[in-house]
Amino acid sequence: MSNGSNPLFGGNQWMGVCYHLHQDVTPDSVAADIDLIKTKVYQYHLGFGFIRTYTAIQGSNQYIVPAADAAGVKVALGAWIVETNGVVDWDATHAEIDGALKQASDYQANGTVPIVVIGNEVDLHISYRDASTALDYAKTQRKNYPNLANIPLTVCFTGTAPTKPDWPSVVSDCEEYVFLTIYPWYGQKQNNNFTPGDIVRNMSYSHDHGMAQVEHMRKTVVIAEIGWPSDSNDPTGLYTTCANERTNYAATLDWINGNNQYNTAYITMWFEMFDEPWKCQPPGKSWECHFGLYTSDRKCKFIQPGCN
Q1: How many CA atoms lie less than 13 Å away from 107 in the CB half-sphere?
Q2: Which numeric CATH code is attached to 15-303?
Q3: Which among 17, 130, 254, 256 could disulfide-bond with 126, CB atoms 3.0 to 4.6 Å apart, if both were Cys?
Q4: Where do the domains of the chain lie?
Q5: pTM higher than 0.70 for the full model?
């Protein structure tokens, strides 16, 4: 089993968490969230030394890196590719990338931002050419920040993007690391076969249909999102429970730490730290707002009454 030092974030921890703010809050509130992210409150170690974000400039998300820097939490700093119906707003996208690079540069003294991630699940939303253009723009703009010369720039794709026509070229252009979203929950939902404590078959499929292709390019896979919802109001409600999220978290943590058939640990971002209630508003799905380890009012689900 290979689960030594984490090559991107350092230390021996392989599980981080996704953190995004939809509503405006104060810098002190963000600092409190970061403190909570660092805190161990449960036996499966709900305390994280690194996080993934999605934007450095939108609303209160601008406060995340400064708070993380003060707390000693590392950040995979995101930059949206801003699009509507597949049409990229290049001015807004350039602003996203420029903002992320500047913030990464501003907080390099402590190595707070070891990587910048362009877009999220880009192969679902835009063309491979646009994804490549955004990554090329980031590489060009990085030249304005000498202290970022060794900071890799990458893109976030869905787990199967490396097997799709044309997309391997973009994957190949990513530097060192490739972020892939992988959700056993969705695979089990599609097959109506829910086993929250057993993700081996799902992860084997993901490995053979995306992860292996990245590894063959001699790049390191980062599982950019993985998670299990704790509630819903549709027929999956029997399986979208706090207890099942807790069970799945433990199974996922075991797998990504190297207890798998590949004897390999994978840097992973649990999706997500806090529930986002707005995601269940129409046309959202009834489970999309329940992926948090914590409720939106910052209560750890795993230690709440009824989560057993």
Answers
A1: 27
A2: 3.20.20.80
A3: 130
A4: 15-303
A5: yes
